[in-house]
Amino acid sequence: MNNSQSLNFIIGITALLVCVASTFISGRSQKFRHLRWPLVALSLLFLYNLIFKPTFFALEITDDGYLYGSLIDILNHSSKIALLATGMTLVIATGGVDISVGSIMAISGAVAATVIVSPYSSLILAVVLALLVSTFAGLWNGILVAACGIQPMVATLVLMVAGRGIAQLITDGTIITFHHPAFNAIGNGHLLGLPVPAWLAATIFLIALALTRTTSLGLFIETVGNNRTAARYAGIAARKIVWITYVFSGFCAGIAGLVVCSNIKCADANHAGLYLELDAILATVIGGTSMTGGRFYLSGSILGAILIQALSTVMYANDVNPAVIAVPKAILVIAVCLLQSDRFRSRIMALPVFRKFGGEPC
Amino acid sequence: MDILRTTGISKSFGEVQALKDVDFSLEAGEIHALMGENGAGKSTLVKIITGVYQPTNGSIWFDGADRRLNSPQEAEQIGISTVYQEVNLLPDLSVTENICLGREPRKFGFIDWKAAKERARKALAKLEVDIDVSANLASYSIAIQQLVAIARSLDVECKLLILDEPTSSLDENETHQLFQIMRHLRDQGLAIIFITHFLDQVYEVCDRITILRDGCKVGTFRACDLPRVEMVSKMIGKSKEEIDSMGHRAPSSSEQALGPVILKAENLESRGVVGPLNFELHAGSQVGLAGLLGSGRTETANLLFGIASYDAGHLEINGKVANKLTWNPRKAVKARLALIAEDRKLTGVIPDLTVRENIILALQASKGAMNQIPRRQQDQIAEEYIRRLDIKTPSPEQLLKNLSGGNQQKVLIARWLATKPELIILDEPTRGIDIGAKAEIEALTDDLCKAGMSVVFISSELEEIVRDCQRVVVLRDRRQVGELAGTDVTMKNILKMIAG
Amino acid sequence: MLKRLRFPIRYVPFAATVAVFIVAYAIGAISFKNFFTLRVFVNLFHDNAYLGIAAVGTGIVILSGGIDLSVGAVIAFTGMLVAKLTACGINTGLAILIALAVGILFGILQSTLIASFDLPPFLVTLGGMFLARGGSFIINEEALSILKNPVLDFIEDNLQLSLGNGVYLECIEVVYLIVLLCGIVFTQWTPLGRRIYAIGVNEQSALLMGVPVARTKIMAYGIAGFCSALAGIVFTVYLKSGNPLNCIGLEMDAIAAVVIGGILLTGGVGYLLGSLFGVLTLGLIQVLIMFQGNINSWWTRIIIGILVLLFIFMQNLITKLSDKKQ
User: Fold this and answer.
1) Nearest CA in chain A to C123
2) Are residues C208 and B142, on separate chains, in Cβ contact within 8 Å?
């Protein structure tokens, strides 16, 4: 075993130990319980690689001074989903859903790219304008849901369908490619050795955490999602709360759109963020937030995003056709659904094997 | 000839015994009223007869045989149909379909719509209703929808029809039409169980009355043999002698010096719902809203708190007019009003939040989202009220859904006390909680009054109202029928007004 | 009682769908020379037959109050399955039967999960979508073409109906029309079909009225699975190849077609015949933009979005109006 192999092994074992340890800690703590199952899944993934493909854990430091390897890849690529999932979590917590985020990403990228290649090319202008437009898209969703009282899935379907058309309208139907070092850094740059998208996702996560937990927005969102009538009786402006979450979701989608656009150095209205809304919803549900609304777990959603990406990266590393990744993802979706279903849990617990332990399921 | 006999029916949910040893019998060709206040057990009894619940003990005999009913479908098959207050039909489908669904006439395996329409028309004609049966059910009034539901019941061989509060959303004409149909069906030999809160209606249409109280049968009476006052006294479980002997407690000192007017209602009305209402609420006094279930008590509370809007009259709070277009719960909270509503589960409990979060919720809502109460202060408030109201919870971080009903109620009271209201409306605060907790809540409202708060107390327990309130507004059939004050507040006087 | 002759409000969305189609068609006929021809009209069916078949299944699921996101992926999967099986030398007819059975089974599997464990259909069919999409890549990572196939060639060469002027009604549009007709008869004239409407309007009430809710749901998704599989087969015949990347996002087009067809997304309201006009309108928009030449293709999506929005608003308004009457 040469030096680099043993190093991989050490990193792998460390990663696995961290995962397993967090699983145990989260299982015991009241506050982080929801992280338990995703952590178990992540641990299993790492264990598999440790046994069959230790090179998966290879980390290198490039000449430019940043880290490089599959683990970093996971961090880098999961950040798009994490960004979307952060906004999606709040929307789902109010009992809604936003299936337009993928299209909003395309719009955001289109706006940014158009500005970058225009005579008024400027990083700040591109970013600000893209975020303004995507926030406005979120506002539109919010108005349909909160003010017009349209069912969330139906309301956001409109923008989902029309959004890519609007993005193409902005780019005039072409795939705009560009070279703009400062803008490219959003999707490809590194900061303190780690990729910029990961930093962005972390920042948005912290902002969302601060917004919901140092103010009472989080409490109100959970109240609205848990019992809307009671929220009204307690004097909470339920509509406003719902509306804010869609605006925030649009904003997050805007940033994710910038990341993708900058990452591939072009604005592709047809494919940017395609089907990413589904991943974001999946990440949120994996993280322990129920589709029916109520309690939400931002940290769980981030972990869910990482898990989804880890699954893909592991399959890549093991030379599986990327498209087949959909299969384990399907299993993941169904498993998460079943774990969250009261009826399933009570049926499983009624089995003689489990009755012996008398333990609680989740 | 009896068509239904239940013997020794008991039903318990966990530790709560909802029905105790009830014998109930029903004759073919009679309209039989089932009366009782909340928690008396009438809905449990109905649900046992219709197969929704299975009795813990006892047996049901129906139409010549002993029966064990496991589902509403089974009950329907042997001829027991129910029409609920909220019509349980499919509003977006046609009248024909609502009548024929599940037993459509067929031709070569396909639905014969012509025959189906004809059948629907005939079923409705029996009730003397002539409407376009191919129109959507939703396009008709609730009254017609109710008749359609009855028609659906009659379309199967129905021998016993249960009408659960069918008149609560009907106007006078519609009610009379319904009564006519009921009599007509009775004369054809159908047995009808009629549940209503309107006393007038009971006497208008019913042959016999069975009264339940606290899960036990008080008795079955012929309607013509049972005077109103006696019926009400049987429903609330006090004999005439008891009522006569129970006077008012000594007037308290607060009564002599009435505080400033906090709330004033003048001809306040929500058409078709409740009103007109006329009363004033003073600081430091406790006013009771008396009346039977369905008399408009909860509607009044909702009106004052802005849950429902009013469309006539005048509502003034602390001298400021509450605009009828913009008055809503948030404004009410800002004006230092508080409402502990009747349906705890629907309107109050946030089950997945902790006790602490539930307690500070209304206070936080009045401060706005950006102005979060520091966590230390939240803990203090929560602990203070847990101690003061003796809320039994392992910790303030326990989820509210894990607490017992009485403790959930106390948490909701704590939620509103934390906002330091000037006027607090308690709608049936003592319902479904144990006697110890009841006494505590009564003592608490007394204290609140002494501290200068104005309290509106709504309760089916007239005793509680007589004991605690200086003034009582009496409601009957959604109208204010009188106001009693001082030494006039006696059980006897209130009963007289309620019975009308 | 006086019976006034009036247009029932529940036909309004359907009428609007037909009106939109007629207006769009009229615009085309007036603006372009070769537009108002039988060939263009028949092509409309030919090009959208697979979408139409999928929309019939989607429509039935939506009427039952559910949603099916797996449509596009199932189309790709069954297409690949047929291509692979025929490439392996299995009789084409048998391959088609197998593919149909797989589709039905797939739908039943999803709905069993939904009905027996009370799971959200959105997530379960999302899982189904991933599964079917991944599955089609497992069959083959690249497109599989069906080059020489005596059965398909026979169908193509002989099973067509001349409408004159060299315009032929081909097998796939006939299949679509038959499926649509069966769907309409099923939903309007059979007790089983009416149960689908009943659970779509209100599951709880339907249960109280004696409708077996779980079984009805399973049936609805089973039919949708069948339709998706059939659409997959039609699509494969249409392109003479299966591709694991086929029809990505087609479920959204199907949902849009159903909504534009006047079916309420929350279930229980609308007519399957509307989905025909929904599909034709979607196709027509593309044809119009193609004819125009100057207008860019992205307007298709925007116009579809606007149409969806208009129909949602109209449905919302109608719901509110009929609520007020109460």
Assistant:
1) A333
2) no
Residue numbers in B near A236 (CB within 8 A): 330, 361, 365
H or E stretch at B83: strand B80-83
| In this structure, CATH architecture of domain B253-499 | 3-Layer(aba) Sandwich (3.40)
Same domain, A74 and A168: yes
Q: Which domain holds residue A279?
A: 70-320
**What does the radius of gyration of chain A's CA atoms come to, in whole angstroms?**
21
Handedness of CA C52, C58, C61, C64 (dihedral sign): negative
Does C301 touch chain A if contact means CB atoms closer than 8 Å?
A: yes
Query: What DSSP designation does A115 have?
Result: H
| Helix, coil or strand: residue A227 | coil
How many domains are contained in chain A?
A: 3
CA distance linking residue C248 with residue B273, whole number of Å: 54
In a domain, A65, yes or no: no
Q: Are residues A94 and A216 in the same domain?
A: yes
- Give, in degrees to the nearest 5, the angle at Cα B227 between B225 and B232: 125
CATH label of the domain that carries residue C32: 1.10.3470
Q: Are residues A283 and A350 in the same domain?
A: no
Which residues form the domain of C173?
Answer: 9-325
Parts of chain B belonging to CATH 3.40.50.300: 2-242, 253-499
What's this model's pTM, rounded to 2 decimal places?
A: 0.86
Contacts C141 to A, Cβ<8 Å: 321, 323
d(CA B491, CA C251): 67
Chains with 3+ CB–CB pairs under 8 A to A are B, C
Structural domain includes residue A64: no
Contact A215 B372 (CB under 8 A): yes
Question: What are the backbone dihedrals phi and psi of residue C169, each rounded to the nearest 5 degrees, phi first?
Answer: -90, 115
Q: Total domain count for chain C?
A: 1
Identify which of B111, B135, B145 has the shortest CB distance to residue C191.
B111
CB atoms within 10 A of CB C98: 17
Whether C3 is in a domain gets the answer no
Q: Does the beta-carbon distance from B90 to C209 stay under 8 Å?
A: yes
B348:A230 CB<8 A: yes
Say whether residue C210 is in contact with chain B using an 8 A CB cutoff: yes
Q: B448 vs chain C: nearest CA distance in angstroms?
A: 42
Does C29 fall in a domain?
yes
In chain B, what residues touch A223 (CB-CB under 8 Å)?
Answer: 350, 353, 361
What residues are paired with C162 via a beta bridge?
C168
Q: Report the chain A residue with the minimal C-alpha distance to residue C315.
A: A150
Phi, psi of B83 (to 5 degrees): -120, 120
Question: pLDDT tens digits, chain B, 500 residues: what are they?
Answer: 788 999 999 988 776 788 889 999 999 899 999 988 766 788 889 889 988 888 988 999 998 888 888 887 788 888 898 887 777 888 889 999 999 888 888 888 899 999 999 999 998 988 888 888 988 888 888 788 888 988 888 887 788 999 988 777 677 778 888 898 899 889 988 999 998 877 778 888 999 999 988 888 988 999 888 888 788 888 877 776 666 665 555 455 445 567 888 888 888 888 878 878 888 888 888 888 988 777 888 889 988 998 888 888 888 888 888 888 888 888 888 888 999 888 888 888 999 999 999 999 999 998 888 889 999 999 999 999 999 888 888 889 999 988 877 788 889 999 999 998 989 999 888 776 666 677 777 888 888 888 888 889 888 777 788 888 888 999 888 888 888 888 888 888 888 888 77
What superfamily would CATH give domain B2-242? P-loop containing nucleotide triphosphate hydrolases (3.40.50.300)
| Residue of chain C with shortest Cα separation from B138 | C322
Residue B498: burial class (beta carbons within 10 Å; 0-12, 13-18, 19+): buried
* Terminal C-alpha separation, chain A: 41
Contact assignment for B350 to A230 by CB distance below 8 Å: yes
Q: Do A216 and B366 touch (CB under 8 A)?
A: no
